[in-house]
Amino acid sequence: MSWRPASVGNEQRLVAFLCRDEVRCAGASARVKAGERGCTAFVEEAAGAIRGALVATAAGLVLPVLPEGIGDRLGLAGLLGGLHMPVHSIGGPETGVAAVESVMPLPPTTRIEYRLMQLARPAWAGAAVHASAAAAAEGVRVRRSGGADAALLFPLQRAYELEEVVIDPALFSDAACLKLLRQGLRTELVFHATRDGRPLAKAGTNARGYGVDQIGGVFTVASERGKGLARIVMAALLEAIFAEKPAACLFVKKSNAPAIALYERLGFTTVGGYVISYYGI
Question: What pLDDT shows up at residue 1?
């Protein structure tokens, strides 16, 4: 067994490996599918078969796909130590992340645990079931977001990142946030709700795999929470996803009871744990 960069010769086998249980590795498969710049995929093979994979991004994010655990521990440790960008974070199903953590020279400085949830097209009840007559009566409108909506949605994206994503607020950058938002509006499915032109809630994909889209960035402004806005925006997003893909997934902090309740009302079920470990912050 040994780890090596994925090549053109085994690309099809890598895709088949990722798609065996894509809900658990949508972040990795989406990057392979898109050919993300600066992103490298590695595979561990045994007897000509892929038994593990790892995707490393230019930003230092490592996404392990290790359904059978690690075979070549020394090889993986050497691979991680030789990456062009030092490991900044590790994200994925909890068993895979724990396996990679075990060969890192130091423990993570921050570790956040989530639920991994999925919804398959056959279990989707349809957007009409989740419509809100009250929101419609108040003039709330939901539509797909586009590149021209970056300025409109930036306050929501900024608030979302500071509340749900950023570990150290001192490291937050408005410019970086806006850049990523613009990129997402070009490449992802994003929907938002407004009233009188004011943005109230949003939801979108953050990884578009082969047969699974991963959802993220679900956010409602604090003054509008509890009114069902996230539910109708999510419903619009799921309709768009299921027009193209058979499944959707997301991960949500285990402590976020209101969000978990929302996703369960939409039909999502928990399939396991998900972890993001950070190094140096």
Answer: 60
